[in-house]
């Protein structure tokens, strides 16, 4: 009994110690801020069916990372600029009658990846470790990343609070939105910019390969329980945060990459909710 008590006491100390580490505190705060940002803009992505476009922007951001490594400026800053320009490019090309939307996405998707690989190999000094950008590691996020996520989450919260009605109109019916004298094009470009910035802000957490999952899986799970736009946002934030927490602890206990663990746990939540809903219906 005494031995068992000793083990429990040891476990409690280990658990408390984990929360005392600055990197783990950053990871928890980053998870919350990313869940808010992704919950808000991800609801628009899923409602407007922009998942493929968002995937294109995510991969295009790799070009900005390569450019940053080559020129010596912050890869996240150059990725943000490259992603926003790519998002505007996709939006502009997809509006043209002589270019299909999926073709426009493919152009920026492949161009971004190609430039990213070329610039990475041309960058001076040692070959950079690209796995951190491709697969992410939430435990490496720093105060600059937290500030970026926090400011982005705050701006988007304010923007959606003020303009939720026109955003919902555009998400569900752009022609109706135009009939209500809403400047649809301006809103679409602004929302594309928010998509690009959210993707870049989450690169440290889950990486290029998995970033799109953070913007879609919590929303898909929330959509199982409600079709209300505002409720999907709130539920997505909660589900996204639970996914991040579960992924963090899986990563810590199994010693596996945190980005993949977060997405795995988020899909697990979706599968459990989907199965539970099907069983209740039967």
From TrEMBL:
GO BP term, pick one: transmembrane transport
Q: Which UniProt keywords apply?
A: Membrane, Transmembrane, Transmembrane helix, Transport
State the source organism's domain of life. Bacteria
| Keyword Plastid in record | no
InterPro entries xrefs: ABC_BtuC-like, ABC_TroCD
The membrane topology of this protein is: Multi-pass membrane protein
Provide the protein's localization. Cell membrane; Membrane
The family assignment reads: Belongs to the ABC-3 integral membrane protein family.
Q: What is this protein called?
A: Membrane protein
What is the organism field in this record? Bacteroides faecalis
